[in-house]
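Hey L., structure's done. Input below.
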Amino acid sequence: MSNNIYLVVGRSGVGKTSVANKLCEDYGLKSIESYTTRKPRYEDEKGHIFISDGEFDGLTDIIAETRFDNHRYCSTKEQIDNNDLYVVDLSGVETFKERYDGNKKPIVLYLTADENVLIERMENRGDSEKSAKQRIVHDKTAFANYQDVFKGMEFYIIDCDRELKEVTDEIYTKIIRSDCLEGNIILYSKKHCPSCEGLKRLLNKAQLSYEVNDDEDFMISQGFSSAPILEVDGIRMHNKEAVIWVNERISAIGN
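Output:
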């Protein structure tokens, strides 16, 4: 299980639940089934725990909570601490930021798609054309200032105008797997090395914790022909590759 909780956010019809389910199916991740008072759209619908208003009122330790179309949705701290993915709307992200004080780091996966694609997907799941268009109008206003909601959080914008597997493979390989590699970072550096100092500045800007090893005898024994070398949980990168990797993290946190 990841030390992060990935908040899967996006407009109606973008494929949030499909993306979360595919990541679980292909990569063994666990997704929160949030509580909701709405009725299932179809038999055996997954992604939610369907309960009554009375049962909802009895829930404790609620972290993320929202209301849409007169239906209530929420998740609890226990669910967040024991899962990797959470499909949630902007209001839920706001209450998450206010209430969650656990050890999971929240990272937002903001899914986007063309409006015609959104309408088509909503109709394919059983929504009427009228309902789909009403959701489009609602979401234009609701998501107009999404970047303000994500302020101070690490977030990625994901284009979902593609095949589902292409989307989920990219999310896992470029974001989730890379984040899992951030547990142990070592910078092999030499004194009076401009490239080494430049990579240090980037690591600091990316707010990454790292260890510096400037033992040149050790580096020679490891066959290093140049410096800097960045090691992330046993995976070693030369300067060019390391700079790209660190810059991706800087872009994600908006520095």
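The mean pLDDT is 89. The chain has eleven helices and twelve strands.

-- N.
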